[in-house]
């Protein structure tokens, strides 16, 4: 399959999912917006890893053609389209991932220290996007708001900020393969490494198990409760109620 055919298939798949979101009787405008803003947020997160790696001497992502904001080269069929769509259609909000940008830590000038900075570039990018969109909302949107439903532009900026603060927090969890685990591993005393290395291969199933358990428990799930507090705090900042 050539690149043009693959690109057209992704465009078609995205269009089908978008239409399904619009036509689904349980879907809200807010959930459609959330689905649309989380994809560029995830892509910016991934691209930032590659750009910081390039700055420190690793050109792996550049050679792979991944230092671009073109979403078609970053789409993971499951994580970028299917999972977010199913979660939104099911009323669970949005969560997903893109194809990881390839990084060869050995090519960095100082692998141990710069590897941490490459990993933290993703959450840092989400923090910046959340902060900039929050500043725009507070400075230009909030003064114009009246009681009632948020205008469309206000909803987009608000949910973009909310999605990015959530992505930042989730990726800072110190469990592999999340970005926060790199900092955790850098600070972990040597005497704990043998035990940690025995546990490390099972961390991804543990994360997915927690996610599934959380969806089963609904509003009482540990992830839901933690992020409910985070989002409530962030909403308070945006609307000036904190």
Key attributes of the depicted protein:
242 residues; mainly alpha
Global geometry: globular
Straight-line distance between termini: 53 Å
Largest sheet: none
Mean pLDDT equals 86
Number of separate strands: 0
Order of helices and strands: HHHHHHHHHH
Q: Low-confidence stretches at least 5 residues in length (pLDDT < 50)? A: none
SS-derived structural category: mainly alpha
- Compute the CA-based radius of gyration: 19 Å
Written description of the protein model:
The protein has about 240 residues and is mainly α. The longest helix has about 30 residues. The mean pLDDT is about 85.
Topology:
Elements: H1 3-23, H2 29-55, H3 60-63, H4 77-89, H5 111-141, H6 152-171, H7 180-187, H8 193-199, H9 203-217, H10 222-239
